[in-house]
Amino acid sequence: ASHRLARLADVKVLLRTPSYVLDTLGMTAMTFAVGGIGYWMPRYVAVFRMGADVDSDVGRQTLAQVNFTFGALTVVAGLVGTLTGGWLGDKLKPLMPGSYFIISGVGMLVGFPLFLLAMWRPFPEAWVYIFLAEFCLFFNTGPTNTILANVTHPSIRASAFALTILVIHLFGDASSPFLMPLVKHLIGGSWNTAFGLVAIAFLFSGVFWLLGAKHLQRDTELAPARLSSDGKAVP
């Protein structure tokens, strides 16, 4: 019972840390977009955009080619975006205390129109916008995880990361592959309607992270005093 109370105390400390809450919300929206794109994009491109019949040999070959192209673009965008975002966040930190939040939020807001272009421009041009949107999607990986570490005391850091991982996967990439076709069915729209959820996730993520920028310096400074309330200290 005392162990459960200690873990509950950890959660209360985290919920009173604005940077942690806003960072987790932004990461959840971002992960929602990642899950939806990763699960449905190849079929969306092959079937809805290229008109492939996946029950035929030619259609299956088209889907396989789309899968390969999309996978290659995702790997490159993920690697380059992650490295670039981490480097830029560290570079701007001396100039802007909230740089980790700012570049993450701006990256997602820039990715929003790029993703819309990917849905409406013809192929193969659309592959360029898919790559750029995914670059923006992964641009925040280093900065947002650094925020989680910086605004939590080491005594509750493991709990902080565990809670964030649970939330972002439960409400992010585990939800979007199910919700997208459901929304498409309920609204009676096209797959562009379903991918509209992903576009909205770009916006929400960017807004959450920009809102967090004003809290980051203060929460980082207060982190050493925000201990677990398990009897060792009071937040």
What do you see in this structure?
With 235 residues, this protein is mostly helical. Helices cover 82% and strands 0% of the residues.
Number of helices: 9
Low confidence ranges: 1-6, 229-235
Q: What is the beta-strand fraction?
A: under 5%
* Main sheet makeup: none
What's the total count of β strands? 0
Q: Structural class of the helix and strand makeup?
A: mainly alpha
- In round numbers, the mean pLDDT is 90
**Termini separation (Å)?**
21 Å
In quaternary terms, these chains amount to single chain
Pattern of helices and strands: HHHHHHHHH
Overall geometry comes to elongated
Helix content: over 70%
What are the key terms here?
single chain, 235 residues, mainly alpha, 82% helix, elongated, disordered N terminus, disordered C terminus
